[in-house]
Amino acid sequence: MSAVLTAAPCTPTFLNEASIAKFSTERYDRMVEAGIFTPDDAVELLENYVVLKVPKNPAHDGTALRIRKRLSRAFSTGWDIREQGTLALSDSRPEPDLAVVREDPADYTTRHPTTADTALVIEVANISLLRDQRDKARIYARANVACYWIINLEDRRVEVHTQPSGPGAAPAYASVQSYVPGDAVPLVLDGTTVTSILVADLLP
Q1: How far apart are CA 201 and CA 152, in angstroms?
Q2: Residue of 17, 136, 145, 199 with fewest CB within 10 Å of its CB?
Q3: By 3-state DSSP, what share of the chain in percent is helix, strand and coil, each rounded to 5?
């Protein structure tokens, strides 16, 4: 395991894939409710821009399934695992590959989870690596998401981001730890280490 401290650049990497106009989260939500944006459009709202999602290949989708299976064995009641479900953040509506959120009596049928509901966000990255390392890290740090994992398929490691800065001029995570095959990644929910998961169990 090695420590890597990086500051997330504030210039988005996704501007070539973004809409020209910027949208408030409220306007974006209304457009989704009205059916203007649908799942077939493959977009998400990042920092008030409507952005095309990065296409997914078999390595990405298979790894996401592997991680979901492994996480489902790690904890029982009190938490749910969401796949590519929307998170309601102040300036964004990201749809992370996986998120561990508190159980909701209505199963989030009336609202999206917020930062307060979210213990862990996971992005599986190969084609999307730069966006996940820079843009998504900045967005999740600004929103105070406590823990953010990047499953880095290119470099075969798990990058664990903790200690978010919150809003500011250059939102970032103060701690970024890299775990490689042979290491075990601690699964921390609500400040408590629930278990540790072998990196080899997360990577294909």
Answers
A1: 14
A2: 17
A3: 25, 35, 40
Torsion of CA 166, 169, 175, 177, to 10 degrees: 110
Instruction: Give CA–CA dist 96/99, Å, rounded.
Output: 7
Rounded alpha-carbon distances, angstroms, from residue 19 to 46, 52, 132, 169: 10, 9, 19, 23
**Band (93; pLDDT cuts 50, 70, 90):** very high
Residue 11 CA: distances (Å) to CA of 8, 15, 162, 170, 192? 9, 9, 21, 10, 34
- Write the pLDDT tens digit of every residue in 95-132: 999 999 999 999 999 999 999 999 999 999 999 999 99
pTM for the whole thing? 0.92
Cβ atoms of 25 and 45 closer than 8 Å: yes
State how far the Cα of 155 lies from the Cα of 199, in Å rounded to an integer. 12
Report the first-to-last Cα separation within the chain, whole angstroms.
Answer: 19
* Counts of helices then strands in the chain (DSSP H, E): 5, 12
Would you say 45 and 21 are in contact if contact means Cβ atoms under 8 Å apart?
Answer: no
User: How far is residue 175's CA from residue 153's CA, in Å, rounded to a whole number?
Assistant: 20
Separation of alpha carbons 92 and 117, rounded Å: 16
CB proximity list for 167: less than 8 A, separation 6 or greater = 90, 142
pLDDT 10s digits, 7-31: 445 778 888 888 888 999 999 999 9
